[in-house]
Amino acid sequence: MTITMPDGLIVVAKADCPTCRLVEPLLTELAAAGALTVYVQDSTEYAATLPGTLYDQTLEHSWRLGAEFVPTLIRVENGQEVARTHGWHKGDWRAISGLGETLGKTLDEDLPEMRPGCGSKTLEPGIAESLELAFGDVKLQSRQIDISGADDPIEACYERGWSDGMPVVPPTPVRVLRMLKGTARASHEVIGLMPPDLVPCTVEKVAVNAVMAGCKPEYMPVVLAALEAALDEAFGLHGLICTTMFGSPMIMVNGPIARAIGMNSGGNALGQGNRANATIGRALQLIIRNVGGGRPGEIDRATLGNPGKYSFCFAEAEDSDWLPLAQERGIEPGRSAVTLFPGEGVQGIIDQKSRDPESLVRSIALSLRAVDHAKLAMAGDAVLVVSPEHARVFSEAGWSKQRLREELEQLLLAPGKDLIAGAGGIAEGIPERFRDKQVPKFRPGGLLIVRAGGTAGLFSAIIAGWAASGPIGSSPVTREVTL
Predict the structure, then answer these.
(1) What residues form DSSP beta bridges with 231?
(2) What is the pLDDT of residues 277-317, one digit of tens each?
(3) Other C-beta atoms within 10 Å of 402: how many?
(4) If you ran DSSP here, which 8-state letter would residue 124 be given?
(5) Average pLDDT over residues 218-238
(6) Fold of 8-135
(7) CB-based contacts of 182: which residues, under 8 Å, 6+ apart?
(8) pTM of the model as a whole
(9) Nearest partner of 271 among 478, 468, 459, 475, judged by Cα
(10) Residue 310 and residue 280 in contact, taking contact as beta carbons nearer than 8 Å
């Protein structure tokens, strides 16, 4: 909706602004010379003797005029703005008013050539979003629930089942609108059908849950990319939600956006303490819960679960010559992307003695055999997180990430007779038909390698994937991050 502007001069002011007080005596002269409308943001007393003065209590006029500073002087002809200035600049006011040298001639001795103005009340924190909600084109579709003044909003969120067990940020309309500013995508755009209930998930619904998770608006592009990856059929989110196994979506971020929003790829990258890591992962989990209906004890049938169901998100360190995961998966250099993986818990690899790549790769391979079960093969995928100190052992020997993967694949071949069900007196194992074959631990492409962690500590980690990995279950999915 556009505002109808009266012809003549318009002044937007507030009594609390010293520069507005400075020009207040001139308004009488402007009014005497022609049509003048004065919108005052904070007082009924400022320029009260002038017939064209209006108290803009709701700030609608100031907002529709786009006033960012006070005083603002606007000239309107035939309903169209033709000139504008803000603050006090003697030359500009004379030119726009059309009064030339006569403007303020009685005050020339007292008025300076220029004075800066103040910020408009329309730009004060919280007010800008409230005005846009009241008068702008963005109309939130989510149903607003009124909470009485006597109620605790956080407790109200608990009572309505919106929480993952930790306090959430109440998603007020102002907070949701502010979150939507983090993306150029329309609030009503449907990202996809959210399993398990197959409910349409809009950008607005993403923003609501991002608010509750504690995200900043600049995190929204990453949250949206992660959701798009989760909704890719190859990821198999519905099955991952419903399984009795441990897995849940884990987000790995590559590219400039990770640095821009302050994500952690260093010390404690898989742990707590970084807002972006923690809240981006949590936002996806809350979307699964609150939009898709994936609640524990209901459709979520995990026997034990894992702490990653609160949040599991980190950035890959890209400060070495190892090719970043996103580029390995087809994303162009310099672009940002997320890779979603159906991750379980973190299994540590402790090797503080290997100083050559041949020893260390054998050590890592031995640990990788334990994924899912030492006798299971080609079931779950895995992510190997190599710390900087371990990575240095390989880099100094000239091993690329691909070389490390190839060496591991060879070391992880095992005689089928040792893995079949019943071998070693253990009922668990692979089918009898593999008895006479060399069996790889992981399916082709099932082992992802990333570099992350602190610079001190000869430790790496394995994150096992859902045992239903692969075409019939869940595969890692990479999506480019866009605004």
Answers:
(1) none
(2) 999 999 999 999 999 999 999 999 999 999 999 999 999 99
(3) 12
(4) S
(5) 97
(6) Glutaredoxin (3.40.30)
(7) 207, 216, 217, 218, 219, 220, 221
(8) 0.90
(9) 459
(10) no
